[in-house]
Specification:
Elements lengths: L4 H20 L4 H5 L7 H16 L3 E5 L5 H16 L3 E5 L2 H19 L5 E3 L9 H10 L6 H13 L16 H7 L18 H11 L2 E5 H9 L10 E5 L4 H8 L2 E4 H11 L8 H4 L5 H29 L4 E4 L11 H13 L7 H26 L5 E9 L4 E9 L3 H9 L5 E5 L9 H7 L5 E5 L9 E5 L10 H18 L4 E5 L2 H11 L7 E4 L5 H10 L3 E6 L15 E4 L10 H12 L4 H18 L10 E5 L3 H4 L3 H6 L5 E3 L2 H12 L1
Parallel strand pairs: 1-10, 1-11, 2-4, 2-5, 3-4, 5-10, 12-17, 12-18, 13-15, 13-16, 14-15, 16-17
Antiparallel strand pairs: 6-9, 7-8, 8-9
Helix pairs in contact: 1-3, 3-4, 4-5, 10-11, 12-14, 14-15, 15-16, 19-20, 22-23
Length: 674
């Protein structure tokens, strides 16, 4: 008697599970290819869960602690599935570092080890590729002045002769934004098949490789750019893995929102025509009559003046200091800019009757569209046309200018993600080392609109009890009530801790204000220890300097809480100065709290605490990156002991050896190091 369908499915699943076991066991194909390989039961369990999610077309959310090896755990089953079923899967990451690790290390390793003939491709935005036509155009029309910019252009031209990909990340230097913007591919300026440089086009080659690929390695920003464009950025795919999934909400809100700044508009207008250099699109239009040219320059000038006046009025009204201010009412600002931008857009469109050159026509269309989109976007923000959005103004003083920007962002992306991602693409696998709060996935699932997902919570294989000394200081002043006293005591406590470890420490802050105060307080008091401060150098250079220095302390905020990997003795201490609650008067945070309150939910326990716990776990995770790593995590916020919610923070960490006395901390650290 023939087996029924259910029995057949079970047999297939058993066969695939056995395949997973054989691949990951100590003497399996992976073990034989990796020196010092050890079987990690958590990795096998995750791989089996991913295999089952694929088979059942079910969503899966997995928290896999540091050291599980989650990338191999999801890649292996998806590689087999895409090849056997002739499908495509997107693997989306938050950081470029993980994206590069996947395409340069993990996937090539699996291709060689598994002996499977499959294709994979790196997917980045088109603006990351060198455009041969635009590079030629810059030289042909002399768009750059003599100096550093011309020197950068020379280097890019030499690099063009040796690069196979044309990817910006492969350059040996970091070009200025102005130079790269003149030579990179831009969607609305691309001639596509009509381009005379088509045969050598780096982006066209990349798209062809993506079309052949089984595994597409993208990042969250590109994934949502694809979503916003209606699927024009990536090839069609049937499954998605979101690695570093704890950042999904913020990226989605950013890409589904609006943003207009004075610098954006000025850059666009200068690209059309720069009155100082007399260069730009208008200067290159050879077929343009003098009258048309003069009229168009006047329209650009009018838009430029409107841009200056509009944003100057904002500064005059709200001040010149750094600020984020919520715009609670529509039509709070006089919209002096949308009209001139729309007029300029129409004037550019009228040139199409005069200009016959295909390349110039494409550029005219592209810049006309940008002017129109800026005008409409500004109108939507000022008139607050989109419901369930929050609108705000941001002022950031720079060295030479003040950047002023207007924003609009959706309050709740859960419904959008459910409709456009989770209801359409199955399976979707979400994974990170930090997705749960107090052993529950409820918070992240609710924020992302993820319903009916399988759940898997996996501990790290690391022995935190014997690798981490968790110093919790509950005798400090409460920062909620005694901020000044708290900050002074924190400086003394940090000084004592980093003397124990001879530097080798990250000190993580929630604000630049406190970071700078502690930096000033530590200067001159730490002999032989190099103090590094976020903001003094680019992020990558700071990290490079930290790794090179034998005794360094890096004071950092925001981006250094996550995505940083410093294994070994260079980093043996992480100090968490304060619980990372989102600033409640941040316009987006404030609006989300109001939105939750309007739904009858507790904004603090339902949003602020869970969000802070996830970032708290990220900060903790910077320390132990390898089985042989040892060190201290110091929590200098007494609220983890004195407030009721504090236990939830500690329950979200793996079991560690807790220490309260700094002298005992010094003794134990020396003993461990010995």
């Amino acid at each position: 008697m023939e087996k029924n369908l259910l029995e057949q499915v079970r047999d297939i699943m058993k066969c695939k599970m056995k395949r997973i076991d054989e691949i990951f066991e100590a003497d399996g194909v992976i073990g034989k290819s990796l020196p010092n390989y050890e079987l990690r039961t958590q990795q096998v369990e995750m791989a089996k869960a991913v295999e089952e999610a694929i088979s059942k077309e079910r969503h899966l959310i997995v928290e896999a602690g540091t050291g599980v090896g989650k990338s191999l755990a999801y890649l292996v089953p998806f590689i087999y599935w895409t090849v056997e079923e002739d499908r495509k899967a997107v693997v989306s990451t938050y950081t470029k570092a993980l994206q590069e690790q996947l395409v340069k290390k993990d996937i090539p390793f699996l291709k060689e080890t598994l002996k499977i003939d499959f294709n994979f491709a790196l997917c980045v935005g088109g603006e990351n590729y060198l455009c041969l036509r635009r590079l030629n155009q810059v030289w042909q029309h002399g768009l750059l002045q003599i100096g550093e910019e011309a020197s950068e252009l020379e280097e890019i031209s030499h690099w063009k002769e040796e690069t196979e990909t044309g990817l910006r990340l492969e350059l040996s230097f970091e070009p200025s934004e102005r130079v790269w913007s003149l030579v990179c591919r831009e969607t609305d300026l691309c001639l596509g098949r009509r381009c005379t440089f088509r045969d050598g086009c780096y982006y066209a080659k990349a798209r062809a490789a993506q079309a052949r690929a089984h595994i597409l390695v993208a990042n969250h920003h590109l994934f949502f750019a694809n979503l916003a464009s209606g699927g024009k950025v990536l090839p069609d795919y049937q499954a998605v893995v979101f690695d570093e999934a704890h950042n999904l909400e913020e990226v989605a809100a950013s890409y589904l929102g609006l943003q207009i700044s004075n610098t954006q508009v000025k850059f666009l207008l200068d690209t059309i025509y720069n009155p100082q250099t007399e260069k730009g699109l208008i200067g290159r239009l050879g077929e343009l009559g003098n009258k048309s040219r003069k009229d168009l320059i006047e329209k650009v000038d009018e838009a430029g003046r409107a841009n200056s006046i509009f944003f100057a009025n904002i500064l005059e009204r709200f001040g010149y200091d750094a600020m984020n201010r919520r715009m609670r009412k529509a039509s709070l600002l006089d919209n002096l800019l949308s009209g001139p931008l729309s007029t300029l857009s129409r004037s550019l469109g009228e040139l199409l009757d005069e200009v016959k050159d295909e390349e110039e026509r494409q550029e005219i269309k592209g810049y006309a569209r940008r002017c129109r989109d800026f005008g409409r976007g500004l109108k939507n923000i000022i008139e607050q046309k989109l419901t369930d959005y929050v609108y705000w103004l941001e002022i950031i003083p720079k060295r030479r200018y003040i950047r002023t920007a207007l924003y609009g962002s959706p309050l709740n992306v859960a419904a959008l993600l459910k409709e456009y991602v989770f209801d359409i693409t199955r399976p979707a696998v979400l994974t990170s080392a930090t997705l749960s709060v107090n052993k529950s996935f409820h918070f992240i699932e609710e924020r992302l609109g993820l319903e009916e997902a399988e759940e898997l919570l996996l501990d790290s294989p690391f022995d935190y009890k014997n690798q981490v000394l968790l110093y919790i200081s509950d005798d400090l002043p409460d920062p909620s009530y005694e901020l000044e006293a708290y900050q002074e005591e924190v400086i003394a406590r940090i000084r004592g801790i980093v003397k124990i470890t001879s530097g080798r420490a990250f000190v993580l802050f929630t604000s630049y204000q406190m970071l700078n105060k502690v930096y000033a307080g530590l200067q001159g008091s730490l002999n032989e220890v190099k103090l590094l401060r976020q903001g003094d150098l680019p992020r990558w250079r700071l990290l490079e300097n930290f790794k090179k220095e034998e005794k360094a302390v890096l004071l950092a905020t925001n981006t250094f809480w996550q995505g940083i990997d410093v294994p070994g003795r260079a980093l043996e201490c992480v100090v968490i100065s304060k619980l990372p609650f989102a600033v409640p008067d941040n316009p987006l945070v404030e609006a989300r709290l109001e939105y939750l309150a309007s739904e009858g939910k507790d904004p603090f326990m339902g949003y602020q605490v869970p969000q802070a716990i996830i970032m708290f776990k990220q900060g903790f995770g910077r320390l132990i990156r390898h089985r042989r790593d040892l060190g201290i995590v110091a929590i200098l916020d007494p609220r983890v002991r004195t407030r009721g919610y504090g236990r939830t923070f500690l329950n979200s960490l793996p079991p560690c050896r807790e220490v309260r006395d700094i002298e005992e901390l010094a003794r134990l650290y020396e003993k461990w190091r010995g």
